[in-house]
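G., before I forget:
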Amino acid sequence: MQTVFNSLVLCIVGFPALAVFLLGLRSWFSDAWSERTTIVIVGSAFGMSVLACAITASWLLISGVSDVRVVVGTWFSAEHYAFEWIFIADHLSLPFATFSAALIGLVAAFSMRYLHREPGFARFYLLLALFGTAVEFVVLAGSLDLVFLGWELVGLTSALLIAFFHERRRPVEHGLRAFVTYRLCDIGLLAAIIALHYMVGSSHVAPNPNGPWDSFVVPETVGGATLVGLLILWASMGKAAQLPLSGWLPRAMEGPTPSSAVFYGALSIHLGPYLLLRAESIIGSSTWVAAAVVIVGGLTAIHATFVGRTQSDIKSALAYASMTQVGLIYVEIGLGFPHLALTHIVGHATIRTLQILRSPSLLHDHHHLEQAMGRQLPRTGGHLERLVPEPLQPWLYRVALERGGFDAWLKDWVVAPFLRLVSWVDRLDESWVNLITGTPAVTKARRHPGPDEAAP
Amino acid sequence: MTILFAILEVLVLVVAARVANRSESPPAARLRASYGMGMAGVVALGQVLWSAFNLPTPEWSVHWVAIENPHAWVPAFSLMTCVIGFTAVVLSPIRATRPKTFARILLLIAAALAFLVIRHPLGLAVVWATSAFIAWLELRDVRRMRKIERLFAIYQVPSVAAVTAGAVLLINGHLNAGLALVVAGVAIREAVIPLHSWFVPFVQHAPMGLVVAFFAPQLGVYAHLELIRAELPHQLGHVIAALGAATAVIAASLGVAQTNARRALAFLVMSQTGLVAFGLDTNSSVAQLGALLTWQVIGVATAGFAMTLASLEARRGDLSMQVPAGSFTRTPRMAVAFLFMGFASVGLPLTLGFVAEDLLVQGSVEEFPILGFALIVATALNGISVMRAFFTLFSGSSKHIGESDLTRRESGVLTVVMATLLLTGMFPGFTVRGLEQVTERQQRAPSISQTSGQAQHATPPTSPATGEWRRSRRGCRFGRRRARPRAPHQPGPARGLAPTSNS
């Protein structure tokens, strides 16, 4: 019986991975499959994944077992270090894995018409399948090492889908911006893995009798737990678009609507809070980390709710709405309400996906609603005008319109100085080369990109 | 038997070089060079199978060059070198590569293969000088590369002189002076900051196939292993590790801001080489294992990455990265190959690069926590460089000049490279196990003082006879460092992606 459920857990990841393998091989060696075949492959893969999740979840409920732990084996090892593939299906991972697979399957079905005859149809579905596989990896991972594996792939697919309409410059620049944010935050995740290995000997998810679900082993010292917790928080902030790293999210809406829905409404953006939920034991053992989570989430929620109200396009408005809710989820996690946070994630992901999928039809829906009501829709947000003093409102509006000025601050105080320093070193090197080879220096205009052109 | 195979590989390549040189046109030269490289690859594959199945080996060694038993990983690394060479030859654009260039690519690969089996310092120095000379000849032949030729000579002549003088001193027992010179020579060749200034212009202007054949096999890493690693004092090892980490971070930072694709590639490669230098000089065998794997990943993935770039350049001309101005639609397979190999070289999950990077970082943190963090930063920045290169070269515009996607030839080679990286990454057990066993075996070998009866930090016997050098070197193996207590050997856990109950 155990073997059956172990196999089911592996199927949750295995079927999407198989879809990636089939689509990838076909695209590389030959022309892509027809749209219908592609849909069938991807839809079936995630359908089977949902079925496996459902059966496993049912068995957990009926049998009263807290988790299914599947040890696949050691991928590689050397001396004291071993990278093991361990998957865990428990009260945290199974709901997330289920609705992830379900949403991706639904989006795949939705996209059949939305992207019909789109030149990048096959590419979209390949990336979607790869993303789904990576998400299941992250969610079901039984160690932080394995989380990292899926985490990297999520970032890669996210950036590639933001730049889906690659013939325009803006989507490409925004895709790169998102990737840079992810990559810089991934430093925190890798550092946390190493810190855990160093302090407690492994990064495995271990039974946590005092917590709601299995979690990472907590370092013995408060300092160690704080360090690991802060690193994990930093890692989560990139994917979850928390302040001050939120600038990529509204720009990410350049991608196709279905990918925007499933990435930034549902799954990718919630991987940050998911990571925090999985690290619940570490957050709970350090007041500093819990406070940091609350502060980051609270500030993000406040920032996003004001900025979202100044957006003039629906997808940006929804992006900020997502950011607000994720900020609130952070607050719930930091205050120690993990079940509330998990419920909030599932509910928010579902409704936001629906909203983003419907966003191209916003005006149409608006008219329908007004016709049904027989009058204009009431204005919303009036409570904020009552709360904020009138002299402050113009200033607040201007700040919100500039998205808090964080993007400009990052560009002026982080990116530009870095690029200037790097350019100076490069010019120094070139001067040295010219000196020792006896060639005159050639002045080139704008040898190096300015902050607007290079990595954001 | 390894020696026989190596001699055969070198002979095949030398003959093929001569044939390619006499070709009437670049396409003919490329075809002949490809066949030659392919035959050498078959020999290398035979070597791997011979050692894998433990077929009978005649015991002999050539005394006059003191070729003692090569390392057990030489067959596998020779095969990887042949893959690098094959990639460099087959993907070299004929517009930018003359028959003589193809010949020199083959000779450089031959030198690299010879380098792997030689263990005598003077032998290594001779091959070191030969490979630098071959590359310099190519630069000298092309008028527009006069500046690069001069720059190359300014750096490589001291490198060759330092390695040769260092080798002589090592043989004659002057350990410290010899080590210092060899370290300096290797650092120049491996473009360790601040001795790197020749490298970026070299990558930027030289034929890419030549660049790959000269640099990708990473002779400096092998020289480091064979001549430096075991004899390096603890403190100096830390300094070199720090320099390696600094090179990794600084080069990664410089690479992120480049506007020329070749320059960005140069800094990416420099950064990865810095990681290897760092890993080799830690005391952790986990990090050393990671460094060895990174060495191979740099070679194979970077070769594929660089040659894909060369293929794109042949189609489009100079590649600027100022603004995104490429078209993915025209060259989808090329774009995918570029992205895959770029990320494989910086640790894409499920590739060998990920395994290497993971071992490197995990193994180094205990000894160098801050430098270990620097490695993580370097890897992150390198990933950004790769993505930026991909976006700027393959997207951002609907305009194109009608460039074609990968040809069947190019596609075939890149498929082999990508499959190698993916399969060795998904199933790394064999590779890691083999390298680890070699490392453990070397660590159990007697030390210099135990074999020669001298003080622990004494120099080897001063007799210049190569036989004496060989005897005194018996304890100087990869993995040992002077004046450092050795922890008792611990058997590792189960290996390979298999249930943990199986060994």
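Strands of chain A lie at 67-78, 81-90, 205-206, 215-216. The first helix of chain A runs from residue 2 to 29.

More on Monday.
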